[in-house]
Amino acid sequence: MTMNKTKNEQTANQIIAKEGIKPVLFSSLLVLLCIFIHLQVFALIFFIVCLFFIVLFRNPERISKYRKDDMIVAPCDGIIRDISINDNEVTIKIEIGLFDVGILRTPMFVDSIDAIYKYGLFIKDNEILKEVLNTRHCINGIKNNNIIYSIELLPEVWNKVSIYDVNLAFAGDRIGFMKYGYLILNIHSLCDIKVQRGDNIFAGQSLLAKI
After folding, report:
1. H or E element, residue 45
2. How far is the C-alpha of 135 from the C-alpha of 117, rounded, in Å?
3. pLDDT digits (tens, 9 = 90+) for 28-77
4. Helix (H, G, I), strand (E, B) or coil at 112
5. Coil, strand or helix at 129
6. What is the pTM for the complete model shown?
7. Handedness of CA 17, 165, 206, 102 (dihedral sign)
8. What would the pLDDT profile of 151-167 be if each residue is shown by its tens digit?
9. How many Cα atoms sit within 13 Å of 73 on the Cβ side?
10. CA dist 162 to 41, 65, 90, 103, 165, Å?
């Protein structure tokens, strides 16, 4: 099982995340083509598809109000599915829905991030096969040469996951993109948890915990 590094450019100051530019442009061209050849019904269908992609890949600007060193913000939009606390680590599992904003954000200030990834399948029922064969991306947040948090990205139906080239990122800054799946955040220190199972959270805006 090989895991490799991958990083991409950030998509700040764009209405649509770069991951959605191709499908939006392609559907827009189909709209124009259908109008040109007088296929108004198909033009309407592709126009709706284009709007769907714009919503799916929207890239809102968010400035977190929780930028202190002891605060941990949500790394993604979604629903808290599980919280576990071990000796010196807190793990929070978040489900990212299809219509949640796909932009991923750093939960804490970091000097840099490191990323590894493995493309694979989308097995749901067999836990052993899931661990070995499924797509899995990992992000490590690094501060003062120490890993202060780790993020596992587990997409459910689509392998398009981006991890951006990031240095000196404040809490809430963009670090990647993923649609539909699970994000597991591991905080490598004891925390005072501010959320509970079932809570809806918003990347960069919801306070998850305080160190």
Report:
1. helix 40-56
2. 8
3. 999 999 999 999 999 999 999 999 999 999 999 888 888 888 889 999 99
4. strand
5. helix
6. 0.88
7. positive
8. 999 998 877 788 998 88
9. 28
10. 35, 25, 25, 9, 10
